[in-house]
Every structure is written in structure tokens, then in C-alpha cells.
Design a protein that fits this description.
The chain has about 210 residues and is mostly beta strands. Helix content is about 5%, strand content about 30%. The chain contains 1 helix and 23 strands.
Length: about 210
């Protein structure tokens, strides 16, 4: 249940969790949820925002909230939501379908693809986050990576789906790309790597350099 991972009573993104049976179903909900918000209450406005000259974006379907700080040399591909009070550090790359929640941090040289940062989640330095959901106040140490695509799957068509082993029972997620789901207040140490399909419950710690 999502209650083992997230306190959704305290997030503004409750709609992401509607009708979720298995926690990995959140990954497939990211795109439609962002599309829905961008056509309802969070209207795209990046073309109206004064940005540093070296900040570039590709899609106009990008919402920038109030009091967002975007440093130079950022590229935002979009569609994306960067909500109130978020911080986007120098050289960050925000790819398609990213939701950077209120007060969240995407730091220097960090890449985010098809992922959600709930409120005050942060990846401040040199991280990769792909096809993942970070709970409230999650922190990734410098150099932490959330891998979303197993090496052994390369050059195979169609791509096999990622399977999880839960209580010695295999569960097929139906996802060919799946990074990590990190519950509220999870802490990931510097240069740790989560392998595809990692699921970590709330208030857990991962030590530095762990795979």
C-alpha cells in the first residue's frame, strides 16, 4: 500500500495516487498526471517568465511556480511542472514529464527524466533520476544514481519488463523502464546506486557507495 511509503494527506499531488493498487503503478501515472495538471490548474507559463539568458527550454508546456530559482545553463525539455519555491541548480537537465514539487531541489549537473519530486525532495549534486518517484523530504547524496534500465536488456526488442521479488513471489511490473520509488524521508548516501525496480519504504537510509 502507498501508506507504507507516502503520507498523501500532506502532499498537494494527491491525484497522482488515485486508484493505485501496486506502488509501481505510480510510474505509469506520471505522464497523464502532468498532462492533466497542465491543462487544468497549472497552466504553462514559461514563455512569460524572465529566465537567465543561458536557460533554454524545448516544449512550451512547462509551468513555473512562484518563487522558483533557476540558475544559469539549465535545460528544461518539458512537458514539466516546477512548482512553488523549487530550486533548479546550474547545469541541471530536466527532461520530459518531470514534476518538481514545492520546495524541491534539482541541483548542479543533475538529470531528471519522467520522475516526480514530492515536496522538499532533493537531489542537490551530480545525480541521475529516471522513471522514479521521490517522497517528501527525500535526499540524494552527491553522485547518487537511480538507474532505470538494466544493462542485460540492451539491444532486445521488445524490451522485457522489470520483475520484483516480494515475499519470495515474483511480480511483473509491466514496466520496461523503472528506476526507484523512495518513500517519505528516505536518505540515499553519496555515490550510492539503486538498481532498476528499487522500492524503499519511508524513513529508510541507504549508506554511501551501496548498490
Amino acid at each position: 500500500m502507498h501508506t507504507d511509503y507516502f503520507d498523501i494527506s500532506k502532499t498537494d499531488y494527491k491525484g497522482l495516487f488515485d486508484e493505485i493498487q501496486h506502488i509501481w503503478e505510480l510510474i505509469d501515472r506520471i505522464t497523464p498526471y502532468i498532462q492533466s495538471r497542465l491543462t487544468s490548474d497549472l497552466k504553462p507559463n514559461i514563455s512569460e517568465i524572465e529566465l537567465p539568458p543561458s536557460v533554454n527550454y524545448e516544449s512550451p508546456d512547462i509551468y513555473i511556480g512562484q518563487n522558483v530559482k533557476i540558475e544559469p545553463d539549465v535545460f528544461i525539455k518539458g512537458p514539466a511542472i516546477i512548482d512553488d519555491g523549487a530550486f533548479i541548480g546550474h547545469g541541471a537537465f530536466i527532461r520530459d514529464y518531470a514534476l518538481i514539487g514545492k520546495g524541491a531541489v534539482v541541483g548542479h549537473a543533475t538529470e531528471v527524466k519522467h520522475s516526480v519530486f514530492l515536496e522538499k525532495a532533493g537531489a542537490p549534486h551530480f545525480s541521475y533520476i529516471g522513471d522514479s518517484v521521490l517522497g517528501q523530504r527525500v535526499n540524494l547524496g552527491a553522485g547518487a544514481k537511480l538507474s532505470n534500465f538494466p544493462v542485460k536488456f540492451m539491444n532486445r526488442d521488445p524490451l522485457p519488463t522489470i520483475k520484483l521479488l516480494i515475499d519470495d513471489e515474483p511480480f511483473d511490473t509491466g514496466l520496461s523502464k523503472f528506476g526507484a520509488i523512495l518513500g517519505d524521508d528516505v536518505q540515499i548516501g553519496c555515490n550510492a546506486v539503486t538498481n532498476p525496480g528499487t522500492v524503499i519504504g519511508a524513513r529508510s537510509w541507504v549508506y554511501p557507495l551501496v548498490s
